């Protein structure tokens, strides 16, 4: 029993071994790219939306609504980024119902790469929103003593994201393999349903956590609120 698609070598390409993680990641990207092209190819006001376009609009509006609840504002760049994370993880897990498909999110290398993208996106969004100096000041809040702890907190977020996503997907695959060996005719249907449910939940949680981390880095109200908590004393008050 293989615990990770990294261990499954499909074929050699020009002397380079291509494992299942890379291959099925390409499959997911191909499905997302072709699906978006097919759904939006007639995206015009005079063309009535079909069910696929309606479903895509519902997904986009749902993600945008979650961002507004978390960040308190509409943020198009964050919508594009968080939406891409959600769709990639969700489609990777949904394709698990296809026989022979191994979700790339069951590989620690994939989940680590996704977590690293979040770690890079957080300062990029923060610098874009606050400026370099304004973002670096957040590491000194509420006091400069917190600088090492804030740095450790940034890296621990990425580690927790990677381990959480990998652990949940991998544990589900291991449990499914064990149950298939016990009762191969009864448990597959149940495990497929549970796999779809947990896959969507994990995609939602991952995208929401990324949105929370980025929103906290771009929220300038934290700095202003900390300054307003200790307003400068006026001449009348000092007297």
Automatic annotation (TrEMBL):
<dbReference type="InterPro" id="IPR035908">
    <property type="entry name" value="F0_ATP_A_sf"/>
</dbReference>
<feature type="transmembrane region" description="Helical">
    <location>
        <begin position="78"/>
        <end position="101"/>
    </location>
</feature>
<comment type="function">
    <text>Key component of the proton channel; it plays a direct role in the translocation of protons across the membrane.</text>
</comment>
<feature type="transmembrane region" description="Helical">
    <location>
        <begin position="165"/>
        <end position="187"/>
    </location>
</feature>
<comment type="similarity">
    <text>Belongs to the ATPase A chain family.</text>
</comment>
<keyword id="KW-1003">Cell membrane</keyword>
<dbReference type="GO" id="GO:0005886">
    <property type="term" value="C:plasma membrane"/>
</dbReference>
<dbReference type="Pfam" id="PF00119">
    <property type="entry name" value="ATP-synt_A"/>
</dbReference>
<dbReference type="GO" id="GO:0016787">
    <property type="term" value="F:hydrolase activity"/>
</dbReference>
<keyword id="KW-0378">Hydrolase</keyword>
<feature type="transmembrane region" description="Helical">
    <location>
        <begin position="107"/>
        <end position="127"/>
    </location>
</feature>
<keyword id="KW-0066">ATP synthesis</keyword>
<dbReference type="InterPro" id="IPR023011">
    <property type="entry name" value="ATP_synth_F0_asu_AS"/>
</dbReference>
<feature type="transmembrane region" description="Helical">
    <location>
        <begin position="20"/>
        <end position="43"/>
    </location>
</feature>
<protein>
    <recommendedName>
        <fullName>ATP synthase subunit a</fullName>
    </recommendedName>
</protein>
<dbReference type="GO" id="GO:0046933">
    <property type="term" value="F:proton-transporting ATP synthase activity, rotational mechanism"/>
</dbReference>
<dbReference type="GO" id="GO:0042777">
    <property type="term" value="P:proton motive force-driven plasma membrane ATP synthesis"/>
</dbReference>
<dbReference type="InterPro" id="IPR000568">
    <property type="entry name" value="ATP_synth_F0_asu"/>
</dbReference>
<keyword id="KW-0812">Transmembrane</keyword>
<keyword id="KW-0406">Ion transport</keyword>
<dbReference type="GO" id="GO:0045259">
    <property type="term" value="C:proton-transporting ATP synthase complex"/>
</dbReference>
<keyword id="KW-0813">Transport</keyword>
<keyword id="KW-0375">Hydrogen ion transport</keyword>
<keyword id="KW-0472">Membrane</keyword>
<dbReference type="InterPro" id="IPR045082">
    <property type="entry name" value="ATP_syn_F0_a_bact/chloroplast"/>
</dbReference>
<keyword id="KW-1133">Transmembrane helix</keyword>
<feature type="transmembrane region" description="Helical">
    <location>
        <begin position="193"/>
        <end position="214"/>
    </location>
</feature>
<keyword id="KW-0138">CF(0)</keyword>
<dbReference type="InterPro" id="IPR017692">
    <property type="entry name" value="Alt_ATP_synth_F0_Asu"/>
</dbReference>
